[in-house]
Amino acid sequence: MLARSLSTALALASVVVTLSVVGAAATGVAGGRTLSIGYPNAGKLVNGRRLRETPTLRFVPAHAKSPARYGVPALLALLDHASRRVARRYPGAVLGLGELSAEHGGRLAAHHSHQSGRDVDVGFYLVRERGGRGLYPPRFLACDGDGKVKSEPGLRFDEGRNWTLLTALLDDRTAQVRSIFVYAPLRARLLAHAEKVGAPRELRDRAAMLMSQPPHAAPHDDHFHVRIACPPGQAALGCFDDSRARGVDGAGGLPVARPAAAPAGSAHASDALPRLPPHDASDEPPPAGGDDADDPNDDTTPE
Ligand SMILES: [Zn+2]
User: Fold this and answer.
1) Cβ atoms 228, 75 nearer than 8 A
2) What are the φ and ψ backbone dihedral angles of 207, each rounded to 5 degrees?
3) What burial letters (b/e) apply to 177-207, b meaning 16+ CB within 10 Å?
4) How far apart (Å, rounded) are the C-alpha atoms in residues 20 and 47?
5) Res 136 pLDDT > 50
6) Is the dihedral of CA 217, 184, 82, 276 positive or negative?
7) Three-class SS of residue 105?
8) What single string gives the DSSP state of each residue in 168-188?
9) Å from CA of 116 to ligand 1 middle
10) What is the mean pLDDT of the chain?
């Protein structure tokens, strides 16, 4: 039944795709409606939009060469808005990105999901323990339950910046965040911080509901995995909000592939990189541009 409805949906989608391609030919590469097809762990992306770096949003160097920079417009706008909001509160803060989806979606090494343009990995905002200055690490860095960066003494998870990020993700009007995977002790630290700073109960409850540590996968102690819901109207075209069967980015029993040399607890090939000295983690640059700066990722006019 499910397979049948999926194939019907895919057939429908291919008609839309054909029409979209015609549209794209008429309007240029940027034309054509973006479609998220299938499941996050068994899907594809049509007319995916490429995320562009901004002063507040950069791919971490370890992921700089990845072609997985594509997503639905709402995901790109979400990241853009959220990183700006953090930088308004913490001038100079830069959100470090990992992978999104491939240009046409489908399977990506080191991920079970990230197939349909609605998943993204984002690094934690980290600070120096002495002085509290924010920094921009060269790759995702794993934190322990106390929030300390395991491999780099003197660096730590910043509850303030990361809670501000979560607040921005949950408040966003262009995208509905569906789930956020993160290591349970860091989730607890964020919720404790939110209570301490007097965040509204409703927001804390929503954050608690959306954040989880996937039970049968990497603990997500070096990044957040963020997934958004299907774009409005696309469920009818074959977009499914959640992963098929039991494989939510490895969350349902499918272990995430990782290189043998990678340290335990990470889903990312980049973690096999040699340990980098702390000075490779550059301090946050001075604030650049204003909130009115060009917004290359904001292409979310309602469809
Ligand atoms: Zn992920």
Assistant:
1) yes
2) -60, -40
3) bbbbbbbebbbebbbebbeeeebeeeebeeb
4) 8
5) yes
6) negative
7) strand
8) HHHH-SS--EEEEE--HHHHH
9) 12
10) 80
Give the closest residue to 119 by CA, choosing from 14, 242, 220, 222.
Answer: 242
CA 134, chain centre distance (Å): 20
**SS3 state of residue 136:** strand
Instruction: Answer yes or no: are the C-beta atoms of 47 and 13 closer than 8 Å.
Output: no
- CA 229, CA 74: separation in Å to the nearest integer? 10
Interval between CA 181 and ligand 1 midpoint (Å): 8
Query: Measured in angstroms, how far is the CA atom of residue 227 from the centroid of ligand 1?
Result: 8
Contact 244, 39 (CB under 8 A): yes
CA of 186 to the centre of ligand 1 (A): 17
Token readout for 152 is 């780099």
What are the tens digits of pLDDT across the range 231-280? 999 999 999 999 887 544 444 333 333 333 333 333 443 332 333 444 44
The pLDDT value given to residue 88? 97
Separation CA 139–CA 141 (nearest Å): 6
Supply the DSSP symbol for 236.
G
Which CATH number is associated with domain 2-283? 3.30.1380.10
Q: What is the mean pLDDT of residues 71-82?
A: 97
CA torsion, ordered 221, 224, 225, 228, to nearest 10 deg: 160
H runs (alpha helix) in 90-183: 159-171
CA of 257 to the centre of ligand 1 (A): 12
Once rounded to an integer, what is the mean pLDDT over residues 30-41?
Answer: 88
Higher pLDDT, 244 or 289: 244
Residue 41 in contact with residue 117, Cβ under 8 Å?
Answer: no
DSSP state of 287: P
The answer to whether the CB of 146 falls within 8 A of the CB of 221 is no
